[in-house]
Amino acid sequence: MSSYEVVHLDHPDDHELAPVLARFERGLGGGKLHETARTGLTGQDSLIYQEPFPKVESHEAYVYGVLATPTDVSDGRSEFFSVQFVVSETMAITVLWGPTETVRERAKELYDKLRLTESDAVTPDAPGNVVVQISRTIIADLQNLISGLHAAVQEELVEIESAIFNRQYQSMSEQAAQKYQKVSQLKFEILSIDAMIDETQNVFAAISSGRVAIRAPFATQGKDIPPFSTEQRIWIEDLHMRARSLKAQRNGLEEEVRLLYERLESLEIRRQTAAQMRFAAVASILLLPALIVGFFGQNFNINPWTDGKWSWEISAVALAVLAGAQFAYFKIKRWF
After folding, report:
1. Do 79 and 214 share a domain, yes or no?
2. Which residue segment(s) compose the domain that 308 sits in?
3. Between the chain's N and C termini, which has fewer beta carbons within 10 Å?
4. What is the 8-class DSSP label of residue 167?
5. Can you tell me the distance from the alpha carbon of 288 to that of 267, in angstroms, rounded to the nearest whole number?
6. What number of other Cβ atoms are within 10 A of residue 18's Cβ?
7. pLDDT range class, residue 217, cuts 50, 70, 90
8. Residue 232 above 90 pLDDT?
């Protein structure tokens, strides 16, 4: 197995990819890459960026697979990196596709993690090592992204609940539209990864159950050869359990986002109630002085204080005290 060849490609052009695919086909004993594998490896499937479909298939002399991970979980765009790979007895190819123009640095970081080390590439288990390395990288990346989503949801939840229970909902009212937009983006990202995580689970289930193999008669000694050792299957089974955990975490995030919406609605209701209370308080403050002024402003000569020296001053002070007392009362009741 010291001659085993592993080729990693990052968004290759036709001139870079064509000779690599030709070398892979020469090692298939006369076999050819199926059109589905060729389409994926060459990046011709436009859905790999918007709706990736993780899978693993036995194509007789080789195994073809796809795994995917989101490019970003904070931009609300629902774009994905797609890792396409083919593995035979003599050679493995991995190709990374994704919208690098918007997340170039992240694409480079992911590509570096996908690469198999030289020591792992020359062992008898090299075919399985390629798939395990890709799988571990994708699961670790998904875990980091979901942890980031969880932190973002918790940050919003803490801020909104603080505004509600600490009675800061009046100052939060100006940010309501931005909050709704941010929560909507979080919900969109959480929903977009649901099917991808489900299918990633199915990939690992297919491998751990032994349904993936390099088929005879192309394989050595004319028999099916699973490209995974016992240790590698243990790794895959562990990743399968972690994918199930990611599914549970994603479902939990969806419930937390639903709670966020409920908190935002509660915040908006309290803001509207506070506004109505302020209007009522202002109307009340103006009503009683207006009533007194109207009463004493009647056209009769028997009104008290009409001819008094301090009548205007007494009236002004009385109205001010009355308005101030009402304002203080409404302030204590938090109508302001």
Report:
1. yes
2. 272-332
3. N
4. T
5. 32
6. 12
7. low
8. no
User: Which of 269, 291, 322 lies at the terminal end of a domain, its last residue?
Assistant: 269
- Which tokens go with 275? 């506004």
**What is the distance of C-alpha 53 from the center of its chain?**
17
DSSP 28: T
CA distances from 174 to 103, 158, 170, 266 (A): 32, 18, 8, 15
193: helix, strand or coil: coil
Angle CA 21–61–198, to nearest 5:
85
Q: Are residues 179 and 282 in the same domain?
A: no
- The predicted-structure confidence for 176-203, as pLDDT tens digits, reads as follows 666 666 777 777 788 888 888 999 999 9
CA nearest neighbour of 81 among 196, 205, 251, 235: 196
Distance CA 159, CA 175 (A): 11
Same domain, 36 and 122: yes
The answer to whether 168 and 162 have CB atoms below 8 angstroms apart is yes
Task: Indicate the number of domains in the chain.
Answer: 2
Give CA–CA dist 250/202, Å, rounded: 17
Instruction: Please tell me whether residues 68 and 113 are part of one structural domain.
Output: yes
CA atoms within 13 A on the CB side of 262: 6
pLDDT, mean of residues 275-288: 71
Give the tens place of pLDDT for each residue, 48-64.
777 788 999 988 889 99
Give the residue carrying structure tokens 């990743």: 239
